[in-house]
Structures
1.
Amino acid sequence: MTIGSSFSIAQQALQNSQYALNIVSNNIANMNTEGYSKQSAVFTALHGYSCYNWCSSGNNLKLGHGAELSSITRNRDQALDNYYRDQSGDASFYNQIGSMASTIGNIMNEMQEAGGLQSAFSEFFSVVAKLNGDPTNNAYRISFVQEAQDIANQFNQMANQLINARNESVGELGDLNSFQNSKAYLAMEELNTKFEQLAEINGQIAKSSSETGENASLLDKKDLLLDEISSIIPVTITQNDNGTSNIYLGNINIIQGGDMKMRFTATQGTSYDEPVIFGIENADGTVFDSNINDLLTSGSLAAIGETSDNATLSYTSVLNDLNTLARAFAEAVNEIQTQTFTGEDGLEYTPMALQNGQLTPATEPIFEIPTPAGTDFTAANIKVNQAIIDDPSHIAAAAVNIDPNADPPGYDADGIGNNLNSQRLLDLQSQKLDLLDKAGTGIGATLEDFLGSMITDIGTKISDINDKIEAQGDVVDQIEAQRSSLFGVNLDEELADLIKYQRAYEAAARVFNVASQIMQMMTTLGQ
C-alpha cells in the first residue's frame, strides 16, 4: 500500500511539474501579448490517509497523498486597475486637448514667422508710409494692393486650417455627412462597439466555471477592453462573483454582465458652442437621456467636443479672435477709404481717389463687402476688392472738403499730392480699434497689441496644457509600472520558476524510479 502510494504521489508530482512548466512556457510565449496577465500555478496538499503502525506510540498516523494543481491564477489587482483607469481617462483627455493645442500652436508659429501675419501687417504699414510720402506713385499703390492681399491671404489660410481641423473633430454645422465622418461621431461608434464586445466576453466568462484555460484569456480581453473604454469616457466598474464586470456612467448602468443595457448616440448641435450632443438610448432604441455632455468629465470623447466649442482654448475660440481682428482691420480700412470724416479744423472731408489724373470721390472699398448684406468680415471671407486690384488708382490717398458752403468752398480736382487720407491709414497702425482685450473689458487695442496679446495668451495656454499632459502622463506611467510589475511577464522570474519546476520534475522522477526498484525487489523476494 505504501509503495503504491509512493508511485501515485510521484506520478501526480510529475504531472504537476509538467503543468507548471506549461504555465511558465505560456507566460514566456505571451510576454509581448498586449493585455496578457501573468499566470501562476497554485498547488494544494491532498488530504492524508490513516495508517496503523504498531511501533508508533500514536498507532494511528496520517500519511500525505501528495499535491494537486488546484488553480491557475492571474496576477491582477482590481483596486490598482481601477486607479489606473481613472488616471488614464484624465491622461486621454489632456492628450486629445494637446493634439488640438499642437495644431493651434503650429498656426500661431506660422503667424509669427517671416511672411506670417505679423510681418504682413508690418509690410502693409511700411508701404502705406511710402504712399503717404508720395501719394501719386503708382508703384506704391500696386505694392499697397499686394500687401493688402497678403494680409487677406494670411487670414484666409489660418482660418481654413482652423475650420478644417474643427470639421475633422465635430463636422461642419448643417452637413450631416461631414458630422458622421467626424472624430466625435466615429468615437461614439467605436465606444458602442467596445460595449458590444465587452457584453459578449462577459457572457462567455459567465459560462466558464474557473480561471483556467480559455477563461484566463477571456478575462485578459475583458480587462483590456475596460482599459480602452475608461480612456474614452469616465466610468465606474464593478465586478460580479462569476468574473464578469458592470459599467456605469454616473448612475446609468450601461453594461450589466453579459447584457448591454444602453447605447451612446451623437447628434449635431446647432452652434459651435455645443457642436455635438452625446446621448444615451435604451437597448430598444428609445431615448434614455438626450444630452449627457455634463457627465463626460474626462476621457477622449469629452475632449473631442471641447476642442471644438467656444472654450478657453479651442479651434473656435482662436478662430473667433482671428475673425475679430480681420473684421476690425477691414472695417477700419474701408471706412478710411470711402466715408466722409471731420478734420481737425472741423470741416467735413471726403476721401478722394486718383482717377484719370484727377481727384474724384472714392466709391470702391479696399476690401470687398461680404454678402449677403449684414454679413460680418471674417478671417475666412476677407479679400481685396477686385476693382482695387484691377485699378490701384481707386485707392483714396487724398481727402478734400467738397462742401460748397465751406471756406474754402468746393475742391480742386487737379490738386494732386494731397495725402490727408493716406495719413489716416498710417495712423491706423497706432490707433485703438474696437478690439476687446483678453480680459474682455472692451477698452480697445491696436492691431499690433491685439495680435501680440492673442499670440501670448495662446502660447501660455498651450504651455499649461503641455504641463498637464506631462504631469498626468507621469502619474499614468508610474501606475502602469506597478501594474506591469504585478501582472507583466518578468523573464528573470520565469527562469527561476523554470529551474524550480525542472528540479521538482527530476526529483519526482527519482522517487518514481526508487519506488519502482523497491517494487521489483519485493517481487523478486516473493518468488
Note: The chain has a mean pLDDT of 87.
2.
Amino acid sequence: MTDMKTCFKRVDYDLSGLLHYIDIGDIGLPDIQRPFVWTNAKVRDLFDSMYRGFPVGYLLFWENGQANGAKQIGVGEKQHAVSSRLIVDGQQRLTSLYAVFRGRKIMDDDYRERGIEIAFRPRDGKFDVADAAIRRDPEWIPNISTLWASGKSSYLIVKEFLQSLKEKAALTDEDEEKISHNLDRLFDLQKYPFTALEIAPTVEEEQVADIFVRINSEGVKLNQADFILTLLSVFWDEGRHALEMFSRASRHPASPDDDPSPYNHFIEPDPDQLLRVAVALGFGRGRLKSVYQVLRGKDLVTGEFSTERRESQFKVLQDAQEHVLNLTNWHQFLSSLVGAGFRSAEMISSQNALLYAYAFYLIGRIKYETPEHVLQKTIGRWFFASSLTGRYTGSPETIMDGDLNRINHLNGSEDFVRTLDEIISNQLTNDFWQITLPAALESSSARSPELFAYVAAQNRLGARVLFSHKSVPEMLDPALKAKKKALERHHLFPRAWLEKQGVDDLKIINQIANFAYLEWPENIDIGDEPPSGYVFRIQARFSPEEWGKMRRMHALPDDWERMEYSEFLTARRKLMADIIRQGFETLK
C-alpha cells in the first residue's frame, strides 16, 4: 500500500495564480467535468466568505503523469497542450470563480448555458444575485465580472463608480472613503490565498477516490465513470462533448423544423450511462475499472504505459461511441421496447436494464449483423425478461460482465439470439412463473417491475381498459398530453370500504392485485362502492363475450366481486402472473 505521507504534497496559490494556470492549460478545468450544480446564491455566498477573509476549503489536484501529446482539457487553444494537474475536488468552487472573474458562461445540470451575475454594493460590502431591481439601482455593481474584464486599474474603477454615484446623490468624505475601501477589497480578491493538496501521478484512481471522500465527506464519491470521463476530457474532448450534447438534446423535444433528435419518452441519459454502453460495445466489458486502465495506455500484464496503446484503445472507444450516439440505432432500439409493450419512462423500473439492452441491441446489430426484424423481438424479449426479474438491480456491472462474456465470441446472428434466449430461459422457468412471480406480486410498490411487466403484457395482448371499449395501448400513449391522466390506478376493493371491514394496513389495501387502471371518469363514478355493488351496474354495458374477455385480460377470477378480500388477492396474483407469461410468450 502506498505510504500516505508520500502520495501528496501541499501547494499554496493565490487566486490570480490559479486562474492564470487554468488560462494557460496547466490546471485542467474542463467546461463540463461535471455539470455545474451550484445555484447563483451559493456562488454569492462563496464571494461573501472570501470577501470577509473566511476560509473556503482545500482544493484537491491530481498530477497528470501521462502528459505527453494529449489533448488539453476544455475548449480553445492553450499555451500548455496538456494539463499537469487535474481537479479532483474543488470543481464547483473553481468553476464559479473562473466564470465570474473571466465572465464565462457555465453549463448547468440540465445542460443549458447560463451566466453567473453576482452583484456588489460598495457602500456596505453586500453581495447579492443580480435581479431587475438591483440592475436599476446605482448603488450596486450588478455584475462584478465587469470589474476584472474591463482591464482597468482599481484606481480607475473606484473613480468612475464614485463619479456615477455622485450624479445621483451627494456623498460625504466618509462615504467616499468607505466605498473606495470596499471596492479595493473586492478588487483584491484576486490575491485570496488557496491551499491545494496535489496527489502524485503514481497514485491509483481508487486511492484518489478514497482521499476525495476522506477530505470532503459531503462530496459525491467518484466512480470509475467519473475517471473515464475525465480521461475523455484530457485525451478526446470532442467525444466528451458529443456525450454531453446527446444528453442535453435528449431532454428537450425537437420542433418540427429541427434536425432529428435523441429525445424520447423512455430515458434522459447522462454521459456516464452512454459511456457504459460504449464500453460494453467496444470492449465487451461491464466493469469499468479495467477499461480505465486500458484507456490510460496501461499493459495489464506488465503494468507499463504506452502512448501508442492508449491511442489504439481510444480508437476502439471512438468507434463504439459513434454507434451508441447514432440516432437511427438509438430510435430503432427504443422501438423494440415499444414492441415489447413498454410505452414510456413511467413503465421503466430499471435504467440499467434499458441501457444494457441497448448495448445488446448494438452488439447484435453491428457485431453479429442480426436482421432487424429478428433483433427487434430478441431485444424486446431480453428487456422484458431482465426488467421483470430485476437482473441488473444488484451488482449490475458484475452481472453484465458475465452476460457479455457469454456473447463476446459467438459464431454469428443465430448463435447470438440463441445465447440470449438461453440466459432468459434459465431464469424464466416454470417455477418462476408459477411460484416466484405470484409471490413477487404480493407487493404494494407503485413502481414494481412485476406491475410494469403486467401492463406491458396487456399491451402485447391488446387488452381493453377495464370497464371501457378503449384499448390499454392507446390510453397509455405518452404523446397524449392532458391536464388529467387518461388512466388512473383504482382500488378494485375501495380503501374506505376495506377500512370499514377492519382492513386498515395500507400494505394490504394497496396490494398490486387490488389495483386496475381505469379511465378517470369511471374511477370517479365508482367512488367507495364495493365491487359487489358497482360490478353488476357496469357489466350491463357489455355483451357476455366482451365481459368474459375483459375479465380474463385483467386477471379477475370468476365471481371475484363476491370473494373475500384475501382470497381475491391470492387468486388474482396467480392470474396476473399468467397474463405476464402470455404477454411475454407473444415475443417469441
Note: Residues 8-114+190-215 form one domain.
3.
Amino acid sequence: MQIGASPVDRRAATRLKGQGCFVADVALRDPLHIAFLRAPVVSGVMRSLEFDEALKQPGVRAVHRAEDISQIKALDVKEVLPLRDAPEFPILAQERIGALGQPLAAVLAETQAAALDGLEAIGLDVEDVVAPDDPAPIAEKSWRTGDPDAAFAKADHVIEATIRHPRLFPAPMETRGIAVEWAEDGLTIWLSTQTPHRARDAFAGILGIDSAHLRVIAPDVGGAFGMKGSVYPEEVFAVWAAQHHRRSVRWIATRSEDMLAATQGRGLLTRGRLAVAADGRFLALEARIEAPTGAWLPNSALIPPWNAARILPGPYQIDTVDIETRGVPIAEAPMGIYRGAGRPEAACLMERLVARAADALGRCEMELRVLNSHPSGALPVRSPTGALLDTGDYPAALFQASKLSGYVDLLEQRDAARADGLLSGVGVALYLEPSGDGFESARVTLGANGRVDIASGSSSQGQARETAYAQIAAEVFDIPLDLIDVTHGDTATCPDGIGALASRGTAIGGSAVFSAAERVRARQLRGDALPITEAVRYENEGQAWGFGVYVVAVQIDRETGVPTLSHVTCLDDAGRMVNPAFVEGQIRGGFAQGFGEALMEQVVYGDGQLLTGSLMDYALPRATDLPSLALYKTETPTAMNALGVKGVGEAGTIGAPAAILNAVMDALAPVGIDHLDMPLTPSKIWTALQAAEKEKP
C-alpha cells in the first residue's frame, strides 16, 4: 500500500545539496541581459525619456520603450466577477504611469552589470499626477437570499465586525525569473511559474506568436504562493525581445524589484453584521467586501474578492444573506492570489462575528459554533451563494478539537491568569477550504522493462508532486516507488494542464494520474502488449471542501505589548491523504504564513513610496518566532474526485489568522480594547494598552 504512507520527497536531497536547477542556473547561448527602468512615482506622466547616453554605455545593445512594442494584446483575466473595464496590460508604460515600480523602459546588454549601467544613463522626466481618491469599482457581484431586512429587524442582537487585512508580500525564496533560448524554429522559455501551459498560451496570445513555436519549462521553482500564477509584463517583454533581436535573453528580478512590482496579496476590507436570536441562533448575515486591485490585473486578480464573498457564511447554517463584493483599482502594486486567496478573509470575518456574538450572549464560543454549524449528517448542502459543501461533520470536528486542545482547561488557565492581572486569551476558528475545480491531465506509460513513466500537466513548487504521484501509481500497479518516474512542468513533453493553483494538485492532478494508471493497469491485466500508454484529461465533479478547527492560547506582556502563543491545536480534514507527512508540511508552512499575517507582516506605502522595500523592513516570521503546533487530522473522503482527497495547501493560512486574531482580542477584552487591525504587532498592542490605561476613570 503506497497511498497513506509517507515516503520522503524524492527531490529534497538534490535541492538541499544545492544541485537543483532554477531559472538563474539555466545555461543560455550568448544571452542578452535585461534591466528595467521603473516608475519612481505612484501616479504620473512621463514628459521625456532620453536614451542617447544609455546607448553609448559599453556592452549596451538596445534600449526599448513602449512605442517599440507593437500589436500587444491584453492578458486574459478570469472573470469570476463581472468585469466592467479592465485596466490596460502595459508591457512598458506609455505616457501615463499607473503604479510605483511600473516598467518604463528596458535595457538589453551583454552583461547584467552593463544593463544596470545603461539604466543609470537614461534621462527621465516625470510629472506627478494625483491618483483618484475614490475610484469606481471595476468588478462587482452580490448575493441576496431570504429577507435580510426583516431578519435584522427581529434579531435580539446585531453583531458587527470590520477587518482590514494588511497587504502582504508573498516572498518566495526564488524571485521571478525568465530565460529564453532563441532558435530559428522557436523559443524555449524557462520560467519560474506555477502555470507553464497557461504561460505559454498567454505569451502566444499577447504577442501573436503561434504557441507551437513556444516551449515553456518550469524547472525547480523556489516557491510561488500565488505570486507566480500569472505572466508579468517583464516576462512578456523578455519573450518579445528574444524574438525581436533573434538572441537569447535572461531576466532575474532582484528581491527589491519583486517587493516593488510583483503581485501582492490580501489588503481586503471586510465588514459584516450578524443577526442573532436570543437562543443563539444565527438569523442573517450581511457582508460588504472591498478588494484593492492594481495598475493591471493578473489572470486571477478577481479570485480574492470572489472567494471572500462566496465562501460566506462558511460552515454555518445561515439561509438569509446579503453579501456584496467589489474590486477597486488603486495606484499601487498589482494585487493577485496569495496562498488562501480570499479564504482567510472569509474566515476572519465570520469567526470574528461568532466570537463577538458569544461575548454578547455570554455563551461558550465552541457551543455557539456547534449550535449554528451545519449539523452532523446534513452535508452535502448548497450554501446561499451557490457553493456545494460536499462532505464533512463540522460539529464532530468542534467537539474533537475541544477535547484534543483541552479547551476547557485553557479557559480555566486564562481566567486564573486574568485573576493575577495578566493578559491572557483563547481564540477559536472553524474554517473551510475549497480546493480548485476544472481539469488536469496525465499520461501514464507502462514500459516493457516494467517501469512506469508519468507525465503530468500539473506542476510543482515544492509540494513533492513527484513523490505523491508516484505513490498513486505504485498503489495501482502494486510495484515499488523506485520503478516509477514522474515528469511535469514542460509544455513540450507533458500534456496540457492548468498548474499548481487553489489546492488542486493532488485532488485533480493526482486524480488524473490515478485514472490514467487504472486504464493502463486494466489493459495490462487483459494481456495487451507492452508498452501501454493511456492519456487522461480529468475534470473533477466540483470543488472539494476541506475544513478544520484551530484553537490558540495567547499571553500578552503588558510592559512591551509582545504576544506569545502558548498553545496551538490544529485539527484539519483534507479527505483521503496520499502522504500524511506532506499534508503536515503544508499545514505547518501555511500556519507560518497565517502567523505572519496576524502578527508581523505588512506592506507599507508612505508619501508615494514603498517603505517596506526589502527584508530589512518587511517582517517575515523566522523559525524561532513560531510556536509549537499540536497537529491532528480527520479524514472525510469526497466524491468530487477519483481519489477522495481535498486540498490542504492553504489550510494554515485560513485557520491561523482567524484564531490568533480572536485570541489576542480575547486577551485585550478585559481592558476595554475590542478592535485592532492585523498585523497585531507589539507596538500596536502596546499603544492600544497605553490609550486604554489613560481612559480609565
Note: The first helix runs from residue 12 to 16.
